[in-house]
Amino acid sequence: MSVLEMKEGNIARLTINVEKDAFVKALNDAYHKTASRYPVPGFRKGKAPRKVIEANYGAMVFYDEAFDLCWAEPYDAAVAEHKLVPVDRPSVVDIPVMSEAEGVTYVAEVQLKPEVTLGQYKGIAVKKLAYTVTDEEVDNALKMEQTKQVRYEDVDRPVENGDRIILDYCGKVDGVAFDGGTAQDQTLDIGSHTFIPGFEEQLVGVKPGEEKDINVTFPEEYHAENLKGKAAVFTCRVKTVQKKELPEIDDEFIKDISEQDTVAEWKENKKQELLKARETAAKNARENELLEKAAENAQVDIPDCMVDREVQYMMQNMAYQLAASGLKMDDYFKYMGTDKEKMEAMYRPDAKQRVKVELVIEAIKKAENIVATPEEIENAVGQYAEQNGLTKEKLMETLTDSDKEYFADRACADKILDLLVSTAVEADEEPAEEAKAE
Fold first, then answer.
1. Domains, in order of start, for the chain
2. Which residue among 36, 132, 266, 284 has the highest number of C-beta atoms inside a 10 angstrom radius?
3. Angstrom distance (rounded) from CA 336 to CA 39
4. Residues 6+ apart with CB under 8 A from 182
5. Considering all CA atoms of the chain, what is the largest pairwise distance in Å, rounded to the nearest integer?
6. pLDDT tens readout for residues 294-324
7. Which ranges constitute the DSSP H helices of 35-159?
């Protein structure tokens, strides 16, 4: 049995008993687990009887270890008994009783999931999101396809803007070469502005095989601390000049790059593709706006531990994304002139809002008694499988109970979004930028 007392801040204070027999067993287990830590003259390591070790090191020598072995099970039982939903690890704040004769009585405090007081979540007024695709946007998309098919032809003339060149260079500051300032057979598109400001422009007019010293100044915000604002000289040798050749946009070009046969067909197909993408973007924007407003209308005191956990999740996700690009977090911090603590502080407001939205979704689910049917769960599995290149049938065969719970939550979240969208009140407004998606 246990006694529950609620404290300010939605903290549960539990007074929990560990039965005498359970504590005695834990003491024996603690002895067998840790006896080797306590050498006793005349006995091999770990072979001294428990009473002998206690006589040499104190009667309570195994109490801490025994407590660690026996506290969790009655704590879990107390949480279940009082139907609590902790969101953090418990803290043991007091142990008024601990002996072989009486067992253990300890006091633990734990942060509970906060209660949400819902405000308006049905009938929320939202702006109308219109989405269009212009002929100019379609033409620009076609020009991008043309650019992808660009060819480069070697030419024997001075460098012009728009050319691609192959060059060697060696950069020096105060006459001394610096790390990363030397390269051979470097490809550079003149006019791309990928190098230091002023570098590319000074190569215009240089002939293949010629050398030229390029004088530049590193920007004050340059990522390398030792080069910020420094004047540098790059000795460059242009090895090859290549002229850009773009294919003509005609029906034959369209056949080469797509499944369409004519330019007109390609443009209409691209227009429908962009419209579909913007429809999806508008739908997502609408759902996000409704969730944000439902959260804004709700009242909830969010414990720091939930925000901390979300911040760490966001940091971990960022680390995964950087790793996929071959970067380490520490290197990224140096490049951006920040550190772990500053990044966590930057994420914190967004993390708090994410937690609030999730809590409001759970509260709406409870208020509306929303449950997922087997068919809806299967549909959620199918959507996940399609998005990740898997087959629904094989994925269904491997689902654990935890997986099924996850997909049930996804299905319920979709039903909640449908509820918010279907009851929303739409206002007429001009097309919104956030509805656009390329």
1. 2-111 (3.30.70.1050), 151-245 (3.10.50.40), 260-435 (1.10.3120)
2. 266
3. 54
4. 169, 170, 171
5. 99
6. 999 999 999 999 999 999 999 999 999 999 8
7. 50-57, 63-70, 72-81, 135-148
